[in-house]
Amino acid sequence: MAKGWGEQGGKELLKKSTLMNYFNFDNMTYSSVYGQGPLDEREPLYHSEPFWLELNGLPNYKSQVATFVDNYSQICVDFCVNHAGEINVGTRFGPLQYFVFADDSVAEIIQLYSSIIGRARLKPRYVLGHHQGCYGYDTRNKVLKAAYGYVKRDIPLDGMHIDVDLQDNYRTFTIDSERRFARPKEMFDELRELGIKSCTNITPVINLNPSDTYNTLQEGHKYGHFIMDKRYDDGNGVVPVHKVEYICYERGVKLFIDPVNEKGQFPGSEYDFTKYYNNPKEAYRGGVGYGGTLGAPGHYPNLNNANTRKWWGEQYKYIFDQGLEFIWQDMTTPAIAKEYGDMKGLPFRLMVESDCWSGKDDSPEQMKPAIEIWSLYSYNLHKATYEGLNKLKSRKNKRNFIIGRGSYAGANKWAGLWTGDNASTWDHLHISVNQVLSLGISGNEIVGTDVGGFMPAGGFNKSAGGRWAEPELLIRWYCAYSMLPWFRNHYHGKRGMKLFQEPYAFTDHFNSNPSGVPEKERYLWLSVEPICRYYVKLRYSLLQLLYDAMFEHQFNGLPIARSLVITDSEDSSLLGEQDWVLDNEYMVRNDLLVCPVMHRQSVAGGHRSIYLPQPDSWYKFNLRIDNDCPRHHGVPLEKRIPGGSKFEVDAHIASEPAFLANITPMFVREGTSPSSPKMAMILRSLGPYDTAGGIIPQIEVRQYTDHKPGKPNPIFIHLYPGQKTNVRHNAPALPEA
């Protein structure tokens, strides 16, 4: 049995056999190559992290073993599928270079692995907050309307993500300040006053349409920062121009594309391919499509070159001077319209530099076909952005953050990771928690999917899916992600796609047309806003717990959200009869057990089974959030539950305030104090809640249960540097243990 597997680890966390295909690919809705959807683990996804950990491989020994295959091309793994008991690994190009790790526990393996690939530096606190993005916030008014919608409805928000809509005609590093986003600095300042930080989508393509004011294009040509169009020569000459054929997959069908005669749909897509092909004096000409006729032709920066990376980092100056706070790195492969390269990326035979093979820059032996070092480009993209932001004068003494769409193992040093363009389906929800936990086993810290799903359930087939996520699905997704590290609601809101996905918009839509909603579904529509508000506020009340885990990651490499095999390795049943919980329970740090419901209410009436790992005992989580009051409170602890217990709970969807805490069951591990073996830890928000989108830093509260029942108990408070809050000096009385 093995777990890990990076982004592809979603269907089942613990795998007895599987086939894995690591090859960075713009695989919208995870269904392009095999056409089976997100539960098919063979699908190559956006990020390559070929690392897996074998559990109980040596039953009579405590030792655990993990493997990392280090290769930038394509890696395929047959784990006990075609040959039982065998692990077969193949690389498409380059050596089969792998690292084997052995230690006594999963946590120690992660520490070893992360010490080699690198660990992230401490990120800003707002990264752990609630974020909103939409491909469709294409005017200043739409951005501000969404932001004020959250503020007025008392749903905390820390981040606003503005897509390429912000740009002047899809010119990277620009802002359309003349039309759609007039006075951008004023807009970003207004958002900041609401407590909301802003970012935008930066794609590694430079629009080649001439412009007197586009300095990035002009400098790229002048100083030679673009990939030139030189093709691979195998000794018999390059492939003749009229025999060039690009390949791609869509919905399980392999496509063969003739670049001489087939072009993209966006303006400027027409050009003479024969003029550019294998002409080392011309920059390679590609293009990026953003759906339908949206997009632009462009050149691609030579990011495998150190000088170009430095230049790339300098391009961020203007947009950060306008008030941006962090970066959303998208289309990282780089993703290219299928008519301009292979697998929606660079042409396989296009020659690119490779700074991973030698310390020499610009030497002939450094040139490699793109297919041989496929994932190196995205790795260097994130590196260039991170190093560039750290050198900006406007960012002096500030911590920077990048959320990226895919790269290669070790890119976590530069950026967080979101798992690409998913869809509003229950299958995508099903794999989304496991994706985070699997990537966490690989030492990734800030990881998450698009909460609620980016694409409609039917993708671009408008007749197959609605214009919004199902209310029940969005509720369950918010609850499941309420304590996972990256928490961004993100959706496709362009014409013909979704109409909305903000939680408060479900209330507004229902109120505008109540008769249009079937009577049996009305309670779900009216439950979205209060339930999502409750669990977002709960997250903010526990933000210090997340932040502490993020801080500790710098030293131990452990993730914020952890699989139970990391935190509860002494419970052997997790690899046997209780292995089912690995797919739907997770720990935050070592303290808080979260048990989200991952299925429709119709499956089990909103009930779910719970298993509490042994040998520790547990308490039902006792923090309560009052949606109508700025102060939150703890209720008396219920009876201690011994580890190893299995039971069923009622977690059905209901908007009654008294029941909200039950919709996502949570439990606190009983701890151990220096003076007493009987200690329960609860986490309590004691400071006032800031409705402008922030939260006063929290307190770690420890209540010792060896005091007399019915009497107030002292609380032990750890104040974090710079913290100001109102502290009550007595906690509620504890019941009999």
TrEMBL record:
Domain of life of the organism encoding this protein: Eukaryota
Hydrolase recorded as keyword: yes
Domain Glycosyl hydrolase family 31 C-terminal residue range list: 557-672
Keyword Hydrolase: yes
Gene Ontology molecular function terms on file: alpha-1,4-glucosidase activity; carbohydrate binding
Lineage: Eukaryota, Fungi, Dikarya, Ascomycota, Pezizomycotina
Chain ranges of the Glycoside hydrolase family 31 TIM barrel domain: 122-548
Homology family: Belongs to the glycosyl hydrolase 31 family.
Listed GO biological process terms: carbohydrate metabolic process
Catalytic activity: Hydrolysis of terminal, non-reducing (1->4)-linked alpha-D-glucose residues with release of alpha-D-glucose
Record's keyword terms, sorted: Glycosidase, Hydrolase
Protein name as catalogued: alpha-glucosidase
InterPro entries assigned to the protein according to its UniProt record, in alphabetical order: Gal_mutarotase_sf_dom, GH, Glyco_hydro_31_C, Glyco_hydro_31_TIM, Glyco_hydro_b
Catalytic activity, EC: 3.2.1.20
